[in-house]
Amino acid sequence: MTFIISDAILGLSLTKFLLHLLNFAILFVALWLILYKPVMKFIRERQARIEKEKADAEENFRASEEARRTSEERLNALDKEIEEKRQAAELATESRCEERIRETEERADLIVKDAERAARERAEKVVAEAREGIKDAAITLAESIIEEKIDKVDDGLIDDALKDWKKND
After folding, report:
1. pTM of the model
2. Cα(115)–Cα(104) distance, integer angstroms
3. What are the b/e assignments for 34-44, b being 16+ CB within 10 Å?
4. pLDDT (tens digit, 9 = 90+) per residue, 34-65?
């Protein structure tokens, strides 16, 4: 009956069962050696490569952050420098404008003084010409009055006086 029971288990004899078990063990060892070890080696290498790439990526990220921070600092420094230069240029422009305004005011003062001097000279010249004209007019008027008043008798007296003066000289 034991034989029947042993035949009854999966319909295999004990020798067939042990052979199948031996085949399974050989297959398991063969698959272990052929597939499992290389696959696990590939997986470990891939994990190592991924970890390395991850570390490289983190390092690149840190480097890019450092470069970004450095660039921002340089940009801020450049912005400050540009602002300082702009302010210096504004001050220089303002001082040049003030200097030109001062020069223009000085020139305007000189022009006004020259114009006043020229006007005074012109006024003095006109006054002098007017005095000369008045003198000439007074002399002409006096001559005409004297000529009207002096008659021939007075001409003789004047001639005698002139002769006396000439003798005394």
Report:
1. 0.40
2. 16
3. eeeeeeeeeee
4. 888 888 899 999 999 999 999 999 999 999 99
